[in-house]
Design brief:
Blueprint: H1 2-14, E1 19-23, E2 57-59, E3 64-71, E4 83-90, E5 96-102, E6 110-117, E7 124-134, E8 143-152
Parallel strand pairs: 2-8
Antiparallel strand pairs: 1-3, 3-6, 4-5, 4-7, 7-8
The structure holds 2-acetamido-2-deoxy-beta-D-glucopyranose (NAG) (3 copies).
One 2-acetamido-2-deoxy-beta-D-glucopyranose binds at residues 62-64, 117.
């Protein structure tokens, strides 16, 4: 019985975890990200994991910006590889995918940096840059989310 419970716990621990966004800074805290399965990297509900809006990074429309995120725990499976998406828009509306990066099975804790251009939109508050880790792994949650708040100048 004890063994079963421990085994189940191990399964759950392995199946929970795994995307943090470093720049722009993700909403809320970003703690313990040198360790696989950090609590702050397990947001499973879109678009922003239920986290409240935080301080916004000011960017100009048409500006180039480097988004940096971390695969906190690897969920790659050879048969159905997933991907990472960087999305932009207003939290309450459909977001636009700016770039999609295939998951090539990089190890847990790998950092990814990708250049994007802020779309030409009406300047103002309320925009987000969102990263998604779409796992395509039947044994893992389908998608992990992170959002960073943006004010477009
Ligand atoms: C952004 O980067 C692209 C190349 O990826 C370049 O052509 C463009 O001039 C840059 N834009 C600005 C505003 O620096
Ligand atoms: C958002 O996307 C869904 C599915 O593609 C679509 O049905 C819906 O009309 C879109 N909403 C807006 C506001 O564009
Ligand atoms: C990304 O942008 C930086 C400048 O901010 C540039 O040095 C770098 O070459 C770009 N990388 C790619 C892959 O375009």
């Amino acid at each position: 019985m004890t063994k079963c419970v421990l085994y189940l716990f191990a399964c759950v621990a392995v199946a929970t975890a795994h995307l943090c966004m470093i720049s722009p800074p993700q909403r809320g805290s970003m703690l313990g990200i040198n360790k696989k399965g950090a609590d702050d990297c397990i947001l499973l509900a879109g678009p922003c994991g239920g986290r409240a809006m935080g301080p916004a990074v000011a960017l100009s429309k048409g500006q180039n910006f480097t988004v940096t995120f971390q695969k906190n725990l690897d969920h790659w499976v050879k048969a159905t590889p997933g991907h990472f998406s960087v999305m932009f828009g207003v939290e309450t509306m459909n977001l636009t995918e700016l770039v999609r990066i295939p998951d090539m099975g990089q190890p847990s804790l790998s950092l990814f940096s990708v250049n994007i251009t802020i779309p030409v939109v009406r300047p103002g508050k309320g925009y987000i840059l969102q990263t998604q880790y779409v796992t395509m792994n039947p044994k893992a949650p389908p998608t992990f989310y992170q959002c960073g708040d943006i004010v477009v100048m």
